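Quick one - inputs below.
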Amino acid sequence: MRWSLQKLAPRLAVSSALWYAASFVAVPTAAAGAASSAAAAPWPNGPFATSDRWMTDRSGNIVTYAGVNWPAHIDVMIPEGLQYQSVASIVSKIKSLGMNAVRLTFAIEMIDQITHKDIPISKAFTDALGQENGTAVLQKVLKNHQGLFDENTTRLQVFDAVAAECAKQQIYVHLDNHVSKAGWCCNPLDGNSWWGDKYFSVDNWKRGVAYMANHGKKWTNLMSIGLRNELRVPILSGGTPEPYNWDTWYNRMREGADDVHKANPDLLIFLSGLNSDSDLGPVVNQQPDKPLVSGGTANFSRADFKGYGNDKLVLELHYYDILRGSKPQDCAEVDQELDEAGFSALGNASSNVQEATDRFPVLLTEFGFPQDSSTYTQTMHRCTEQFLADRQAGWMIWPLGGSYYIREDTQDYDEPWGLLTHDWSDWRSPEHIQNGLLPLTNASQAASGGRPPPPPAKDQNQDGDDGKKSGGVQRRSASSMGLSIAPLGLWAAMTYGIISLVL
Ligand SMILES: *[C@@H]1O[C@H](CO)[C@@H](O)[C@H](O)[C@H]1NC(C)=O
Ligand SMILES: *[C@@H]1O[C@H](CO)[C@@H](O)[C@H](O)[C@H]1NC(C)=O
Ligand SMILES: *[C@@H]1O[C@H](CO)[C@@H](O)[C@H](O)[C@H]1NC(C)=O
Ligand SMILES: *[C@@H]1O[C@H](CO)[C@@H](O)[C@H](O)[C@H]1NC(C)=O
Ligand SMILES: *[C@@H]1O[C@H](CO)[C@@H](O)[C@H](O)[C@H]1NC(C)=O
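Output:
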């Protein structure tokens, strides 16, 4: 998601949505060794697991997500774009890039309604868009999906259709709980920020993520789920948020992960960071005592995730220029920031970044920028894509579509950041596709299919004791990202709050 200070001139975009599209596990490549047995295993060859810094399929071959965010968490709570194009043609567009994954976002509110009294898509559209426009948009959706949807189709049946089409075209699905109350995410005032926030009920959240994990058992291609998108400081929300600190994060994430694992033990579980998913320091560096997440004493331990801590946990981060304030000078600066945020858990971190105490797969599940003919060449964006290719990290760009049914009260909202045009028919930036995304997807596929290399002998202690010690002596400097970026996000949040009060 991205949040924008609409009443201010500059657009403060933060982000969201992920899709992935990734790789053909059946195609062995040169990356990390020869894949031999994979060709025989039927796609998707799950369940997936983790091995050191890699995600792997059932045969132990590397899987690297390369994909895109497909939002389905905004007011209507139906995957976007279906009034313009069919599910099949949209998935074909994704496939044409060589992507292998989709980050499909959902709102907890949808599950609240399902468990109370579910509604058909006809009502979903008129509730969100009004009788006249809702009916008109529904008719377009039905016209594009004859024989597939009718007025009584439910929202979850639309999700089912998206997952089925993705399976048909060999695209993995990653579910992401984006918000509690449906709507554009993620300004700190929206009541969706943190456990206990106005709309962020702990119980409903746990029920919702477990419900979707369980429901997704009937999708052959649901491989993973993100517990919550962009946790952030709750401000002026009208709720009673729990303390914004590392201990709350750790305890609640564990509870959510336990419930998801109980509902569907096959899924990889993605943990997103603090400060709008810009900081995983406490997981990666055993460093709970940072100024903005003070009060925490818990130490991250895989053993606390009973039965799945060793092979199901994946880390995710987001990277947007609004979170950093100024533009980076060069790729070294981008590499260092991404490593400090948590990519160091891949190993091979920038030379001046503290070595991570443990290894995890780390994915950039959101990044994005306006899809015009030149923005992708800016240092920040060019270097981010280069980083993902060089480090063989998985990713999902934000977002797929060029418009939303409704966003922040504007219907048929145009999305200049969308890979696709307003009517989801073509690429907005053929230049970025050709010179940025195709080479990146290609590089990510090259990382798939091979065997993970054996972990380096050094610093691979399973119990983490030695790692913790070395993490302890190599604390990172105060100039690192956690300290430079987070306050900016907070500053932006507070500015928004103050301006809202004034207006
Ligand atoms: C209904 O749709 C029309 C055409 O897209 C748009 O101009 C109008 O603002 C919409 N109505 C509302 C209430 O948003
Ligand atoms: C939708 O459900 C209503 C009420 O059960 C029924 O009258 C109507 O025929 C259904 N519509 C379709 C297209 O099946
Ligand atoms: C976390 O680790 C530190 C350093 O090893 C230790 O002092 C602290 O007591 C630990 N916290 C908990 C809750 O065990
Ligand atoms: C990462 O480090 C390992 C050893 O720790 C090395 O074998 C590998 O080549 C490195 N990869 C890159 C991309 O530098
Ligand atoms: C994809 O990678 C292969 C080698 O791995 C290379 O030959 C080809 O040119 C690449 N294509 C693009 C679009 O980068």
